[in-house]
């Protein structure tokens, strides 16, 4: 006997695919990174991260101040150095924030740009069936010409119009989203401009004394401070030379500066030989470089004659102390003084150095420590003479503007005397040697730099402001019109002519939309009183007639 199982066959359900958690994590992380909230947070973090770069000294700008910070703060300086606090803009954490912000902005803009282009290419939507629910609504007599006349009036006011039979849809205010996208795209361009300037730019500072013997050529070794981008080598610097021919400065009676102008001679393989003038707010433009005037001062010319009758001249610049009178301090060193011409031997303990204070306009009476005016009305040089081993042969880095005080403290250099010299006066020292104050030369402090990202950065900032204005003042809004015949038997106030039902809504916060809607209705209707009726709304009989006519 055969037993037949007539129960329906059950089909096992298909196994559910387990979601890939890694892909889900990456997708969610990307969505979070490309959200506008994340972009704003990263922009805020970038601003905070830049604060140490403006508070703490940076190696690329002023390495000597970084060294001073290590001396003044021996405990904190090594810890800050480990986290890149003295090279903020080249540190890993600043670059990470920078790149994340760049990626976030691109991820935010791309889908919004795609949607905006799609919106611009699409037609305004159809009018809703119940326009009475819109924030702005009114019913008025239809203008002659019906929907065509309404559409023509809207086009004259630069609305995008779509006519569907007796219905008219219009939209306006795409400038808001366009400005928003332009603002964020320009922000990306600003970041690109900053990156170009950082990677391919270079800069250097140089103090240039007037005279052919003090000419400067654009090599890294001749800069007092130089900073090259990661993509720039010393051989990439443009080849040119500068010679300071003249410097003109005018001051007010109070000592306030009024006008500065430097005259230089430019020549070199990459520049035609020419004379050029430039001032503080008008830099000298060269091929792949710009020369900026930062400061100026005086370089006293001192002639020292040693005991063998050999004369040497120093025109080292004296740095200004910061007062309005251009009081300056500096050092004139003569390490090769008192060399025996017969043997060529130099006595190390017979080297000479003079520290001094230069006063362009010295007071009539002592103390002679501060100039009364920045121009040379009564120039005077207050010198202190030192003799001994200056320590310049030890190989230890030292300032060319200050005497090494370690040599003074150890007794290797001793003070000889002090003297106030007027222009042309000579001072005879105790060993028979003489010092003569011949006059001064002018010097200027220059900043020479090349920033390939400056032009893109300027253009981007201009577009950024334009986009910001569009984003702030643009208003997206829509209006709809429907022309329907009225039934005179129902008591329509138009006496049987067609009615126009109008409605509108702002797509963004726009407090003045009611007034604009009223003005638009008045122009479409051709009746000045229509604006008042549009602002107060139509009566119930008009709306009833429209509804019954629509039915």
From TrEMBL:
The keyword Transmembrane applies. Residues 528-551 are annotated as: Disordered. Residues 540-551 have a biased composition (Basic and acidic residues). It comes from the Bacteria. It is a multi-pass membrane protein. Keywords: Cytochrome c-type biogenesis, Membrane, Transmembrane, Transmembrane helix. The chain crosses the membrane at residues 92-113, 181-202, 454-473. This is Cytochrome c biogenesis protein ResB. The keyword Transmembrane applies. Its main location: membrane. Residues 36-518 form the ResB-like domain. It is found in: Membrane. It holds the Pfam family ResB. InterPro entries: Cyt_c_bgen_Ccs1/CcsB/ResB, ResB-like_domain.
């Amino acid at each position: 006997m055969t037993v037949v199982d007539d129960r329906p066959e059950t089909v096992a359900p298909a196994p559910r695919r387990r979601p890939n958690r890694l892909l889900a994590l990456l997708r969610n992380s990307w969505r979070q990174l490309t959200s506008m909230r994340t972009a704003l947070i990263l922009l805020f973090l970038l601003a905070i991260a830049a604060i140490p770069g403006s508070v703490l000294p940076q190696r690329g700008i002023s390495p000597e101040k970084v060294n001073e910070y290590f001396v003044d703060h021996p405990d904190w300086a090594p810890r800050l150095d480990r986290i890149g606090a003295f090279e903020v803009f080249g540190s890993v954490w600043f670059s990470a924030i920078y790149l994340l912000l760049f990626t976030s902005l691109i991820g935010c803009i791309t889908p919004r740009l795609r949607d905006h282009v799609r919106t611009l290419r699409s037609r305004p939507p159809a009018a809703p069936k119940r326009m009475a629910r819109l924030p702005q609504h009114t019913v008025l007599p239809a203008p002659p010409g019906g929907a065509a006349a309404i559409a023509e009036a809207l086009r004259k006011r630069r609305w995008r119009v779509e006519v569907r039979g007796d219905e008219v849809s219009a939209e306006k205010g795409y400038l808001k989203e366009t400005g928003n996208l332009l603002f964020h795209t320009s922000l990306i361009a600003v970041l690109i401009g900053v990156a170009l300037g950082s990677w391919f730019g270079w800069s250097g500072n140089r103090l240039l004394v007037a005279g052919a013997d003090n000419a400067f050529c654009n090599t890294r070794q001749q800069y007092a401070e130089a900073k090259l981008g990661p993509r720039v080598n010393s051989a990439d610097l443009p080849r040119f030379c500068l010679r300071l021919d003249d410097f003109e400065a005018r001051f007010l009676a109070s000592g306030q500066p009024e006008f500065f102008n430097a005259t230089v001679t430019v020549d070199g393989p990459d520049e035609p030989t020419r004379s050029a003038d430039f001032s503080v707010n008008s830099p000298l433009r060269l091929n792949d470089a710009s020369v900026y005037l930062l400061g100026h001062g005086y370089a006293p010319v001192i002639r020292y004659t040693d005991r063998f009758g050999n004369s040497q001249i120093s025109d080292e610049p004296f740095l200004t102390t910061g007062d309005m009178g251009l009081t300056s301090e500096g050092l004139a060193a003569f390490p090769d003084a008192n060399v025996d011409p017969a043997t060529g031997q130099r006595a190390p303990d017979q080297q000479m150095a003079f520290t001094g204070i230069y006063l362009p306009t010295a007071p009539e009476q002592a103390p002679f420590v501060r100039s009364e005016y920045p121009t040379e009305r009564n120039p005077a040089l207050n010198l202190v003479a030192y003799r001994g081993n200056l320590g310049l042969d030890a190989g230890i880095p030292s300032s060319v503007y200050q005497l090494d005080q370690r040599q003074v403290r150890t007794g290797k250099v001793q003070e000889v005397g002090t003297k106030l010299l007027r222009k042309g006066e000579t001072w005879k020292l105790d060993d028979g040697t003489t010092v003569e104050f011949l006059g001064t030369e002018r010097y200027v402090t220059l900043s020479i730099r090349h920033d390939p990202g400056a032009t893109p950065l300027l253009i981007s900032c201009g577009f950024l402001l334009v986009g910001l204005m569009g984003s702030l003042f643009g208003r997206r809004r829509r209006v709809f019109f429907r022309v329907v015949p009225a039934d005179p038997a129902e008591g329509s106030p138009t006496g049987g002519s067609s009615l126009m039902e109008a409605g509108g809504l702002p797509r963004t916060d726009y407090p003045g939309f009611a007034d604009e809607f009223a003005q638009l209705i008045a122009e479409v209707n051709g009746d000045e009183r229509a604006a008042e009726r549009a602002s107060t709304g139509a009566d119930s009989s008009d709306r009833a007639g429209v509804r019954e006519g629509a039915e």
